[in-house]
């Protein structure tokens, strides 16, 4: 950015103008229906504050030109019916689900991958949402401090900020708190509350599986194979959402002793854990070598040691969309697939 001071002044003026005109018109951007066919969320002006990843986030009125920096945030805002108040999206990794296509089609894509400071500022946002804190760096969208200096509030998913959250809250509860906080900020409390309630009910249904699964030494163990890169497996560690999914359905993540989301391990380590079953994350749409479920199955079957595991030999393998193994509005679907798959594999009494 060659002239940050002048650009900051210009952005503030544009945002003030855009915010007034959008409020007067009842919204900005496209006017398509929400994903479920209901009209986009509308809200009356009122000041709201929430805490997001250790920072107080305040808006004088519901945002009218929000930018989502990643697919997770984009789909959350679409699920809340906020497409008419989105000035841009970025960093789409997989296809948008069919239920969001019409709403998504009217939103500008400011960057096909990670947005730069210039791309974000050109969209003249009055609010920015991200699923992970690492999208707010000086050479990406800009730091939260830099954007605050431009009077642009920023929001980060609570799931990515465990140290700033009350102890004992599960990843799913943190995800649901995102819906509720965004609902308050955008004046879409009813839709947000309904979404959180529906997904809490889905988690409760999946938890019924645990009451019918052997526990103690007989509790089934699982390895989540997320990616195979340069021939090496990436699996779910203790801090990733799959560990919580396992707990909910009564299984145990075999790599719970590794304090990472998706650590790289060796095939020999996978063999040593000798899981009762394996969950493959299908990332076919991402298109990198080793991403598809078929390639991962081939890697398991082709390894001289792993191929001898009972889980591989007896095809005790479940496939779920890989994108759903990271926290998002889609994650309860993967949880439901996991619970159903455990029944199919015979782990549920």
UniProtKB/TrEMBL annotation:
<dbReference type="Pfam" id="PF01497">
    <property type="entry name" value="Peripla_BP_2"/>
</dbReference>
<keyword id="KW-0732">Signal</keyword>
<feature type="signal peptide">
    <location>
        <begin position="1"/>
        <end position="24"/>
    </location>
</feature>
<dbReference type="InterPro" id="IPR050902">
    <property type="entry name" value="ABC_Transporter_SBP"/>
</dbReference>
<dbReference type="InterPro" id="IPR002491">
    <property type="entry name" value="ABC_transptr_periplasmic_BD"/>
</dbReference>
<protein>
    <submittedName>
        <fullName>ABC transporter substrate-binding protein</fullName>
    </submittedName>
</protein>
<feature type="domain" description="Fe/B12 periplasmic-binding">
    <location>
        <begin position="65"/>
        <end position="349"/>
    </location>
</feature>
<comment type="similarity">
    <text>Belongs to the bacterial solute-binding protein 8 family.</text>
</comment>
